Amino acid sequence: MSSKRLPETTAYVRITHQSWQQGRIEGEVRASDYHWQFQWRFNRGELSVEPSLGRALIQEPLGRFLEKCDYQLEPGGDYSFTIRAEI
Asked: Which of 35, 51, 57, 62 has the highest Cβ tally under 10 A?
């Protein structure tokens, strides 16, 4: 039986702005050679990621990370999470 490991990529997140009053967190995320800016309007459940190149690879895992960790995230903070795919 082969115990082949699933591919993994580490994504690095930096929070640049947070407003609880506006229900918004903004930041940037890097994974492999990709770099995106994001805005999460958590009171509406809306996540926008730019640029569009590679967005499909990061949008869902980034959304799960933000929902799981939102109250722990602070502006200027650096965070990371693992994606079960090779990006």
From this structure: 62
